[in-house]
Every structure is written in C-alpha cells, then in structure tokens.
Protein 1
Amino acid sequence: MSKYSEAEALFQELQQQQITVDFLVNNAGYGLFGEFTETDLQDELSMIDINIKALTTLTKLFLPGMKQRRNGKILNVASTAAFQPGPLMAVYYATKACVLSFSEALENEMKGNGVTVTALCPGPTKTGFESRANLGQSKLFKSGVMDVERVANIGYEGLMKGKSIVIPGFKNRLLANSIRFIPRKWVTATVRNVQEKS
Ligand SMILES: NC(=O)c1ccc[n+]([C@@H]2O[C@H](COP(=O)([O-])OP(=O)(O)OC[C@H]3O[C@@H](n4cnc5c(N)ncnc54)[C@H](OP(=O)(O)O)[C@@H]3O)[C@@H](O)[C@H]2O)c1
C-alpha cells in the first residue's frame, strides 16, 4: 500500500462496489533503530513511503468525499516519537512528527465540515514493532510498555469523540506534554539516552 497506484486501486475498487468510507485508519508503519550513518537507506526510504506517503495519499483520496458528505473520521497513527527528535531512530521520529503536524493541520481545516482528524500517539506498545525496528537491545521497550488492546481501545474512544490528539497512558501524556517546557537539546539528549542499548 506504499505506492500511489495501490492506494488509487483500493479507492477505485471501493467506488466501483459503491462502498462509502466514513472511517479511515492510517495505521501501517514501522521504525528502524540505529545511527543514521549505519542504517539502510532503502529501508528508510520505504519507511517514508509507508509512514508518510501512503498515509497522505489515502487521506487525499478519501477526505474530499467525507467533506462532501459532511461525515467522516480519520485516525492517523503517529507516536509519542512525534513530539521530539529521536537520535538512533532519526528518520522514524521525523516521520511521526510529520504525521502529527499533518493531522493537526487537517483537523483545523475540517472544522465545521462534519469531519474529524485524530492523531493517535502511543508510546512503546507490545506489537511486532520492536523486532521489526531492531530495538531488541535498546532500553526503550524495557519498561512501561502498554498492552496493544488498551491502546487500540483508547484510540477508538478518542476517534469517536473527535479528539485532535490522543496519547494513551498517563506517563506518555506527561512526557509528551512536559517536553515543551524543557530546553530542546536536553530533550534530544534524554531521548538518546533512553534509546541507547541497555
Ligand atoms: N508498537 C509501538 O511501540 C508503537 C508506538 C507508537 C506508534 N506505533 C505505530 O503504530 C503503527 C502500527 O505498528 P505496530 O506497533 O502494530 O507494529 P507491527 O505489529 O509491526 O504492525 C505494523 C503494521 O504495519 C503494516 N505495514 C508495515 N509496512 C507496510 C507496507 N509497506 N505496506 C503495507 N502495510 C505495512 C503491517 O502489515 P503486515 O503485517 O501485512 O506486514 C502491520 O499491519 C505504526 O504506524 C507504528 O509506527 C507503534
């Protein structure tokens, strides 16, 4: 689904079958751990394709119909990674910052149109993400990992309420919201420390 043609084919197929999409969940994505000079460029470009390009394309295809019908909800899965730079996962954090910024901007554009856009920003969650990102030796998933069902339920509730940003878990909310009061360099250094190998 990372290519425009694949998203377009899905959109056309649903149109042909006269299936109206009122809910769009852009969840697909992955991360990659490692210093930028050591990581694989193709893997990172593919990550940008799925984390950003596919999400943007699907939103571009489905949002106009929602606006026209004055009915629709979009859930874009960002991350707590969206709130600060992420040394040792530099590209991943940057993609999620893009998803959060994009979602908040669209939420604003859609006000009064009957459409809501929600950015779900989970912290570390027990899924296939950790192994796909090669995070096995990082400290990131060593504590405070949330259960995926809990995250999904909180995301669903936030989507239905039309919330702009949903951060599951008290600790994740506290961290994400306190970052703006701390010098940016300290935040980046702290993230590096948390990401480093245990
Ligand atoms: N787990 C966490 O700690 C965490 C924290 C914050 C945000 N997130 C975000 O949550 C979302 C879901 O990840 P997850 O934690 O559930 O990890 P996951 O278990 O690895 O699932 C990733 C999902 O993305 C799909 N996907 C990956 N590359 C794809 C591609 N090129 N084309 C189509 N589908 C693709 C996978 O489909 P297949 O199964 O078909 O490969 C799978 O459904 C991601 O956007 C991730 O960045 C995760």
Note: The two ends are 35 Å apart (CA to CA).
Protein 2
Amino acid sequence: MSASQNQGRPPKVLAISSPKGGVGKTTTAVNLAHLAALEGYRTFLVDADPNRSATEWVESAGERMTFEVEAVEKVQEGSLAMLRELQGFDLVLVDLPAARRSHRRGTCCGEGPAACPPSMR
Ligand SMILES: Nc1ncnc2c1ncn2[C@@H]1O[C@H](COP(=O)(O)OP(=O)(O)OP(=O)(O)O)[C@@H](O)[C@H]1O
Ligand SMILES: [Mg+2]
C-alpha cells in the first residue's frame, strides 16, 4: 500500500501490545507513527495506556511530529476493530497498556486489526 492508494478504504489498524511492561511498546508505536506520517500516510495514534507516555512524547516533540494522537480511557472488547470505521486515515496505531489480557488478539482486537508484540531482541 502506498500513501496515495488508500483513499476511501478503511485504515489499517496496528495495535502494539505485550503482556510485559517496559519492552518498547510506546517506542515502537510512536516511531512507527512518525515514520508513516513522514511517508505521507494519514496516521492516527491512539494512546490507550493510562501512563500516557505516547501522548507526552508526541506533545513534547511539538511540530516535529505531524500525526494525530488521542488518549482514550480504556480499551474495550472489540473497540480496536471499531477503529477501522475511522474516516480520513490510512493507518491507526494503538499503544496498549501492558496486560496479559490486552495482548490477546481475540480478546480486544476482534476481526481485522493486527497485534504486534514488540521485541527488543
Ligand atoms: N528497540 C529498543 N532498543 C533499546 N531500548 C529500547 C528499545 N525500545 C525501547 N527502548 C527503551 O526501553 C524503555 C521502555 O520503552 P517503552 O516506554 O517504549 O516501553 P513500554 O513497553 O511502552 O513500557 P510501559 O509498559 O511502561 O508502557 C525506554 O527507556 C526505551 O527508550
Ligand atoms: Mg508504554
């Protein structure tokens, strides 16, 4: 998919998750969002972690990061799949909190979105 080919299609949803904390979820989510935006993809970062690391990071970067970020209270079952309904974006990244439950694709992602456990290996 190139940045110009996705017009009118639902966005790709990529949730960054791991049962463990401190393994690079937020680093992965913010860097992927930044790189995608630089490539011209209309990118939206959902900060679903109550620690708000992603939001703080993007806010502190100011105009150097050109994608949208929004903090959400809580990820509900099936709510990641609903992100495919968002209009006007090519890519939606989700920074999930560390939780055994949240990294199970079937639990919160429903059909469609991909789960991407980061690795520091
Ligand atoms: N690929 C990497 N190589 C080395 N260090 C990394 C890498 N990715 C992240 N880090 C470092 O690891 C630490 C934790 O990263 P990060 O905050 O992204 O993890 P997290 O999984 O989001 O943590 P939390 O569960 O607390 O939200 C940070 O200091 C970050 O700079
Ligand atoms: Mg984090």
Note: Helices lie at 25-38, 53-61, 79-82, 105-109.
Protein 3
Amino acid sequence: MSFSFEEADEYAAAHSTPATDVLRRLGEETEAETDAPQMSVGALEGAFLRFLVALKRPQLVLELGVFTGWSSIEMAKALPPGGKIVACDVNPDTTAIARRYAEEEGVADRIDYRVGNAFETLETLDGPFDLVFIDAWKPDYVDYYEAVLPKLADDGVILADNTLSALAGNEGIATFNEHVMADERVECVLVPIRDGVTLIRRRP
Ligand SMILES: C[S@@+](CC[C@H](N)C(=O)[O-])C[C@H]1O[C@@H](n2cnc3c(N)ncnc32)[C@H](O)[C@@H]1O
C-alpha cells in the first residue's frame, strides 16, 4: 500500500461532508482578500473540528487565532444549547470578516469575539474551558499551552493546530511537540489531518 500525503488529504476531503455554501464563500473571500489564505483550516479540518465539538459537547470553548473565522464558525455550529466560544485574535480586519460570515451562518450569537493580544485576553478569562483550540502565533504555542492548562476543565481537551509542520522545519512547533510529550500531566495524540492537529487532555 502506497500513497502520498497529498493523495490522502485529497481523498479524505472528497469523502467528508463538504462545507456549506456560506463557508465556501468565506474561503473564496479569504483567498481573494488576505495575504495568507492557507492559514484557514478549510473544509476537511473544519469538518473534523465540528465533529469533535459534537462529540465533546463543550459549554465553553476558547479559540486562540480566529483569522477569517472558518474554525470558530464550524465549532459554533455543533455547540450544545447554551454553549459559547470565546474567540481571540489580534487583527480587527479579519475578525470583522469572521463576524460577518458567522452572522450569515446563523451562529454569531454563540461566538464572543475578543480583539487583542491573546495573552492579555486570557488574563481576563477564568474558564474552566471544556475545549481549547490553539491556532495563533506558532513560536508562542508553549506559552499559550501553559497559560491555558490551569484554566482547562478537569475533563477538558486542548487541540493544537499545525503540529506536523515540525517536519517542515517549524521550530516553534517542534519545541511545542517535545514540550507536550515531556509533560507528565497530560496525554496526547497527534492526528495527521492536514498539517496535523494534536489532541491533549489531562492524564486520567
Ligand atoms: C493560523 S491563523 C488562524 C486560522 C483560523 N483558526 C481559521 O480557521 O481561519 C492565526 C491567527 O492568529 C492571530 N494571532 C497571532 N498572534 C496572536 C496573538 N498573540 N493574539 C491573538 N491573535 C494572534 C493572527 O492574527 C491570525 O489571524
């Protein structure tokens, strides 16, 4: 059996429920209007996040790194009644795009957008977070993780994005991956979807 990473990714995307029309348009606008559209999680990982939220049924989600909103919108769609996402990003322009598409998708009332440095925003939040999605500045992943872990619910889950990019020379991510592996407080699994998502929880 032999296939490339790209073939696996393409096949997985073709055999997963596709994005809604609203999210497809969000993808087109992100492509046309931003410098780094590849930052968006896109349809396959978006569907994966939506599934995780549907399974976990978190009341409080924290997202670090909103960009134009694909991941927060997908997660918001699967929240249980009363569930909420606090979504942090330093960029007001991309957050405005995210908010517009969240409104179109009918989930804006479940997302609390906080524009500012994620570390400063985090200081204002107590948690406990049932689910945290870390997808902001890669060199800061260890610091996001250490800031978030004390505010994680006992049975909470941290998802860290782009963790396979260590293989492409991303040193911040490589350091983060080693940090988590050496942390006896938690267990983790790196899922090779897109460029990798690591699922982390406290050791039972
Ligand atoms: C990879 S993108 C997020 C992609 C997003 N999850 C999606 O699905 O479209 C990273 C984002 O992190 C934001 N960011 C970087 N450093 C930050 C910080 N210290 N605080 C808050 N946001 C930050 C950037 O502005 C950028 O929008």
Note: The beta strands are 60-64, 84-89, 111-115, 129-134, 152-161, 186-191, 197-202.
Protein 4
Amino acid sequence: MTHDESSATLRVADLGEFALIDRLAAVLREEAVPARSAPADELAIGDDAAAWRPTPDRWEILTTDALVENVHFRLSTTTWRELGWKALAENVSDVAAMGGRPRRAFVTLGLPPETPIAGLEELYRGMAHLACEFDLVIAGGDTVAAPVVFLSVTVVGEVEGPGLRRSAGQPGDLLAVTGVLGGSAAGLEILEAGGPGPGDDVGRSLAHCHRNPSPRVRQGLVLNEAGIRCGMDLSDGLLGDAAKLARASGVGATIALASVPMHPCLEERFGPRAAELALTGGEDYELLVAAPADVIGRAEQALRRARLGPLSVVGRLEPGHAGQVRVVDAAGRPIQPSRASWDHFGRSGTRR
Ligand SMILES: [Mg+2]
C-alpha cells in the first residue's frame, strides 16, 4: 500500500507506533525537509534522541516524551512523586542511550482544574531528586488546561563525539546489555495484582525497579569512552528493542536466551516465566550495545573498574533480513517467544 492510497481511511490504531513514525518521516522526505534540515552529520527521526553538531567538536542531543493519565499511568497505582521521577528518568535514559550527559529539562503539564496542588508539588519533588542525582537543571516548560493529566518532558544533553547510534551495528558484532533484565515488568505484575504484602521484600524490590528506574547515564559515558558506537536504551523489552537496533543497522540478530542476565529475584517469584519477563519485559532502562568482541571486552572491563555493574553478551548481529531476531536455547535451537514487545498504540494497553 502506498502512502497516498491508504491515508484517507487509516486510523492511528490501524498502524501502531512504529509504522506511524515511518509515515510521518515519509511526509518530511516527500516535502524535501531533510535536504535542508538534516545534513549527513545530524540524526533525524529514528534514534533514541536527535543529535546535531553546533561546532565541529561538540554534539548536542535532545529527546522528548509524553505521559498521559490512564494510558501510561494511573494515579490509583502510581504516586505523584514516582510519576515525577519516572517521567524524567525515561528522557534521561534516552540521553544515556546516546552515551551523553543530560543538562537541562523542560516540563509541560496538562492539568484538569481539580488537580491537587500538593500532588503537583510531590511530582516536582520526584523530578528534583532525579535531577540532583544526575546534575540536571529543570529549566522551564509550560502548563495548560487539559481533560486528563499529562506530562511532556524534554531533555537536552551533550555527548563527546557522535556517541552511540542504533544504526552503527555491523554483522559479527556482539550484542551486550548492562545490568539485569525483567525487574520492571515483574514489578508491574506485582503492583497490578495489589502490590507487595507486608514483609514481601522480593516483591518490594521488584516494584521499586518498576517505579524508580535508574537511567544508566554513567554507564553510557563509560561505554562511549570505551569506543562503543552502536547502542540504545531498553524501554520496550530486549527482544523488541534488539529488533529496532538490528533494523536500524540493516542486519539480523540472534539472542541466546540462556545468556540473558535476569534480575536475581525473578526465578524465585515467577519460576518458568522468569526468562520470558527478562526477554520481553519493558522499562528496565538498561543499555543494549553492539560492537566487535575486543571493544565489548574493553568496555566490560571499564564498567567493572568504575563499579558500574556487568556488561553481559547476549547474542550477535548477523547478515540477513534487517530487524529479524532469532532467539535460541542453550543447544542453539530456535525458540518462539510468546510476546514481542510493547507497542504504544497496539493492543498492549496501559504500561504502568
Ligand atoms: Mg530509547
């Protein structure tokens, strides 16, 4: 189907988020916008953040993200303070994904008239705590009346050199992730089932992963410094995000399920479902990178020296159909995962 013949009847729900972004980017190409606004050394739509070079030796990056009440959060299950932390953390994570340092944040709030002021003060306390931890200035924004609460957060940062790009992977590169995976998705399940009971330390620890994710800014800086050129953050689950990285790089990928680092509490609580949560669970905000084996080895040592946790090899990029990801078991046999990743306009519904 071409752009012209289908647009008249299509609705957002027919496309899904990624097909929608492709179509909007196509409009800009048709209208010849890239030729004027995106020279070869700038990044246009399709990476974790936009990047451009104001002077020959300095790159700036910008990322923006919106959260809408009852679509991305419910005030019945999320506190205002957690919402503030998480809204800013998601954007800071996209700066970390490029190997950059966040500098300034801008916050636009959509507010129904009955919104409690004490709640909004707590929202700002949550953002302030994250801003202090990452040395980030909350520099401005806007407030508007709206039928539900929404937040739109923009973060501007900078990066040494071009940083980490989704499109920089090569066949033969190893795929590796920081930290451990699946904690946030497990925490969401526990929260949606009523939250951790008294004395449930495992449940509380998993719920914390979901409510207060820590963006991997320090890890991203070390990975960039160590020579990693391809990477992204894990917001939608390893399987789906690896497909995006592979697609942007024009390659396929294989993930070895047994090598995916799981949150240490997952097996205890979820038994045989632990691997699925680690492979497909969203919102861990760890970093996924691809590089030749010697660069991965160097980066892994640099992270360990800086006490910034492990870098675990989970698979490799391969020649083949762009964006196709195979998952294999310990014997190398293909596995069919049950669920790929979140798609914001698809059938997956509320994410937190
Ligand atoms: Mg991202």
Note: The mean pLDDT is 88.
